[in-house]
Write a structure and sequence with these properties.
It is a single chain. With 671 residues, this protein is of the alpha+beta class. Helix content is 12%, strand content 27%. The chain has one domain. The strands form 6 sheets. Strands 13, 14, 16, 17, 18, 19, 21, 22, 23, 24 and 25 form an 11-stranded antiparallel sheet that branches. The chain is globular, with a radius of gyration of 23 Å. The structure holds MU-OXO-diiron and calcium ion (2 copies). This is PhoX family protein. InterPro entries: PhoX (IPR008557), TAT_signal (IPR006311). It comes from Aquipuribacter hungaricus.
C-alpha cells in the first residue's frame, strides 16, 4: 500500500485562517488569537545565526533534510530500543506496541471515524451524557445550566482511564472540557432573546471544566462503559480549588470575593494533561483570557496574557469575568495554572499549583528522575512562547501506602522553575540540532529574574521569562518525557507568523504551517540538570509537496503525511504517538493519531493509526499497548466553516441521539 498518496489539490483556504484551523475553531477555541497581535513582543531569541541558517531552510527536503549525512548524525543520537510496529505485515508487533496497517489519509470533508483493518471503535461517553447522580438524559433542545452542571461537558481534550481498586474491569475516566462551540450546541444560538442568550451563555460556562466518571468492562477485550458511581463528578465553575505553593496568599491573587488569595472557583480552557506517577491527573489552563472582558486600560502584564478582548459576555452571569470591576481585577491571576485533581477522592478540592508558573499552560507531564525528584515539562501554547521545566524540591516516595500517596501529592507545591533556551550548532551538518540550557526563574526559593520577586515570577511568569530571553518557539503544545529513555518530546504545532528574519535552528521554517517535534536529551540523563542537547525528530508536512521542507527522523521510505502535531503519548515500548490539530487547513486531511518510532532502524517512520471525523481534532491520546487499546478524545467534530446547529457538518458519533455532532471519548480496540 502507498502511504504517500497522489498529490491532491488542497482545500480552498476560504473560511480557513492563516493559523491553519477553521475560522470557527479559532473563534471559539482561542478567541482568534492568530488575528490579534502577538502576545510576546519582548523580542526574545536573539542568538541565532540567520545567514548560515537561511541558506539551509530554503533548500529542498530531499537534498538537505533527508541527506544521508543528516540521517547518520541523527542515528548517532538514537538509542538502542525495541523494534517498531510492522505495518502491513499481518499485525505482527514487537512487545509493547501494536501491529497495524497504516490507514490512508482521509480527505477533510469525510465525516467518518477511520481505524485500521482489524480494529473497531466504541464511544465511551459524549457531551451531555449523565455524569453525576440525578443528571438527566441529554436533550439538545432543552439544555439548561442546571442540567449541564451534572452532565458530561463539551469538547473533551485530555483523557485517561485510571485503574480503580486494582481491578482491570473498573476504572476512572478523567476528561478535560476545553471550550464550547456555541453555534453548534444551541438551536437558538442566532435567534434567542436576551433571556435565551443568557441561558445559553451560562450553559456553555458549565460545559467547561472536567469530568470524572467510573467505567467498567466485562473483560480485558471489551469496551469501557460509564456507570453510576460515587466517584462520578463534574468539576465546574462552582468547584472550589485550593491555591498552593509560594504565591498562595499573594496580594496578586486576592479579590473582593477571596481576600485570602488562597481559593479559586473553577478551572477553564483545560487543554492537555497527564496522569502523575502517584495517580492524580494534571490539567493545563490555557486560553483563559477569552472569558474576561478587558479592563478599561490593560496593563502591559495583562496584555502579555491576552486580556485585551471584549470577552464572551460571561460578566453578565458572574461579575468576576468583567474586569471593569476593580474588585475582580486579579481574577484572571487565579487562572492560567496547572491544576491537580485526585479522581479517587470526590470530596478533595482540586489544587492550583503556583510553583509551576502561570502562563497559557497546554499541559504538564511528570517524570520521576533517578534522584527521585518529580520533573514536569510544560509548553506555553502561543506563537513565540516558551518551554518550561519544573523540578520538585522533595522526592518521590514509592509504594502503595496512603501515606506515600499523600506525600507525593505535595511534590508539585515546591520546587524550581526554568525556561528553555535552544542554541543551534549551525546547519552545515545537515541536521537541526544543538545544545540548550534551562534558564533559572525561581531556584531554591529565590528569584533569578532581575526586578521580580518570587511571587511576581510565578504569577507573571511570561513577563518574567521575557527578561531572561529564552527561545521563542513555534507554539509549544504537549511535552512528554519517554518512559523508556527519558528523552523529552515537544510538539510545536505551527507558527505561520514566523518570518524568515526570525528563524532559529529549533524553529527553522518561515510561515511554519505544519509544525515540528523537538527531541530533548538531558545531559547525563539528569532531568534535574540545566543543560541538554536537542534535535528535530520530525519536521512535519506532506512529503509529496516539494514547496515544504520536511524531515522524518532520517527515515527514507514512505510515511503518512502529518501536520500540526499537538498531543504526544508513548506506548509501553517507548514509541512516540502524535495526535494532530489543524491538518485540514494545512495538508487537506482530517486530523489523526500517528505512530512514530523514535529509536531503532524505523526511527521517523510515521504511520497513521486513525483519523477523526470532519472538522474534529484528535486529543488526549492514550496508547494502552499492554492492555490492547487506544483512547482518543474527539474534539470539535463538525466544526467546519458554515456549519451550525441547524446545518451540521458531522453527525459523529452517529448514535442517533442527536442530529448533530457530539464531542466524545472513544476507545479503539481489536475487532
Ligand atoms: Fe488547547 Fe494548545 O491546544
Ligand atoms: Ca545542526
Ligand atoms: Ca492541544
Amino acid at each position: 500500500m502507498t502511504l504517500t498518496p497522489e498529490r491532491r489539490t488542497l482545500l480552498p483556504m476560504l473560511g480557513r485562517t492563516h493559523g491553519t484551523r477553521s475560522a470557527s475553531v479559532c473563534h471559539w477555541k482561542c478567541a482568534d488569537a492568530c488575528t490579534r497581535p502577538d502576545e510576546n513582543v519582548s523580542g526574545a531569541e536573539r542568538f541565532v545565526d540567520v545567514v548560515r541558517r537561511s541558506a539551509h531552510v530554503s533548500a529542498s527536503r530531499r537534498t538537505v533534510l533527508g541527506s544521508s549525512a543528516a540521517g547518520a548524525a541523527l542515528a548517532a543520537l538514537s538509542v538502542a530500543g525495541p523494534v517498531a510496529a510492522a505495518p502491513g505485515r499481518g499485525g505482527a508487533a514487537a512487545p509493547g506496541t501494536f501491529g497495524f496497517t497504516a490507514i490512508d489519509p482521509v480527505p477533510a470533508e469525510v465525516d467518518r471515524f477511520t481505524v485500521p483493518d482489524g480494529w473497531r471503535w466504541e464511544t465511551i461517553i459524549s457531551w451531555g451524557d449523565p455524569v453525576e447522580t440525578g443528571a438527566p438524559a441529554f436533550d439538545a433542545e432543552a439544555q439548561t445550566p442546571e442540567k449541564q452542571k451534572r452532565q458530561f461537558g463539551y469538547n473533551n481534550d485530555y483523557l485517561d482511564i485510571l485503574p480503580l481498586a486494582g481491578s482491570d474491569r473498573r476504572g476512572l475516566l478523567v476528561a478535560n472540557h476545553e471550550y464550547t462551540n456555541d453555534e453548534l450546541m444551541f438551536p437558538d444560538y442566532a435567534t434567542a432573546d436576551a433571556a435565551g442568550k443568557l441561558r445559553n451563555t451560562e450553559t456553555a460556562m458549565y460545559a467547561h471544566g472536567m469530568s470524572v466518571v467510573e467505567v467498567r468492562r466485562r473483560g480485558p477485550r471489551d469496551a469501557w462503559k460509564p456507570v453510576r458511581s460515587r466517584y462520578n463528578r463534574r468539576i465546574t465553575l462552582d468547584t472550589e480549588f485550593v491555591i498552593d505553593g509560594p504565591a498562595a496568599g499573594s496580594p496578586l491573587l486576592r479579590t473582593s470575593e477571596d481576600p485570602t488569595g488562597t481559593r479559586a472557583y473553577g478551572t477553564l480552557n483545560n487543554c492537555a494533561g497527564s496522569t502523575t506517577p502517584w495517580g492524580t491527573v494534571l490539567s493545563g489552563e490555557e486560553n483563559v483570557d477569552q472569558y474576561f472582558s478587558k479592563p478599561a486600560v490593560p496593563t502591559a502584564r495583562e496584555a502579555r496574557y491576552g486580556l485585551t478582548s471584549a470577552g464572551r459576555g460571561w460578566g453578565a452571569v458572574q461579575s468576576r469575568f468583567d474586569l471593569a470591576n476593580e474588585g475582580t481585577r486579579n481574577e484572571p491571576n487565579r487562572f492560567f495554572w496547572v491544576v491537580e485533581v485526585d479522581p479517587e477522592d470526590p470530596t478533595a478540592p482540586p489544587v492550583k499549583h503556583t510553583a509551576m508558573g502561570r502562563f497559557k499552560h497546554e499541559g504538564a507531564s511528570v517524570r520521576i528522575d533517578a534522584s527521585g525528584h518529580a520533573v514536569a515539562y510544560m509548553g506555553d501554547d502561543n506563537r513565540f512562547d516558551y518551554l518550561y521545566k519544573f523540578v520538585s524540591r522533595d522526592t518521590f516516595r514509592p509504594g502503595p501506602s496512603q501515606a506515600a500517596r499523600r506525600h507525593n501529592t505535595t511534590l508539585l507545591s515546591a520546587g524550581d522553575l526554568y525556561v528553555a533556551k535552544f542554541d543551534g550548532d549551525g546547519t552545515e551538518d545537515g541536521v537541526y540540532d544543538g545544545t540548550g540550557e534551562w534558564l533559572p526563574l525561581v531556584v531554591g526559593g529565590r528569584s533569578f529574574v532581575p526586578g521580580y520577586s518570587v511571587e511576581e515570577v510565578l504569577v507573571f511568569t511570561r513577563n518574567a521569562a521575557d527578561v531572561v530571553q529564552p527561545t521563542a518557539m513555534d507554539r509549544p503544545e504537549d511535552v512528554e518525557p519517554s518512559p523508556v529513555t527519558g528523552y523529552v518530546y515537544v510538539a510545536c504545532t505551527n507558527n505561520t507568523a514566523r518570518t524568515a528574519a526570525r528563524l532559529d535552528e529549533a524553529n527553522p521554517r518561515p510561515a511554519n504551517k505544519d509544525g515540528h517535534v523537538v527531541e530533548i536529551i538531558e545531559d547525563g540523563g539528569d532531568a534535574t540538570g540545566t543543560t541538554f542537547t536537542w534535535n528535530l525528530v520530525l519536521v512535519c508536512g506532506d512529503p509529496d509537496d516539494p514547496s515544504v521542507p520536511t524531515y522524518f527522523g532520517g527515515w527514507q521510505g514512505e510515511v503518512s503525511p502529518i501536520s500540526c502535531p499537538d498531543n504526544v503519548a508513548f506506548d509501553a515500548a517507548g514509541n512516540l504517538w502524535v495526535s494532530t490539530d489543524g491538518q485540514p487547513g494545512s495538508i487537506g486531511y482530517n486530523d489523526g493519531l500517528f505512530l512514530v518510532p523514535v529509536s531503532g532502524p524505523e526511527r521517523g517512520r510515521v504511520q497513521q493509526f486513525l483519523a477523526v471525523p470532519t472538522g474534529a481534532e484528535t486529543c488526549g491520546p492514550q496508547v494502552k499497548s499492554e492492555d490492547g487499546y487506544v483512547l482518543v478524545a474527539v474534539q470539535h467534530p463538525g466544526d467546519f466553516p458554515g456549519a451550525s446547529y441547524a446545518a451540521p457538518a458531522s453527525t459523529f458519533p452517529y448514535d442517533g441521539v442527536f442530529h448533530g455532532p457530539r464531542p466524545s471519548c472513544v476507545q479503539v480496540l481489536p475487532a
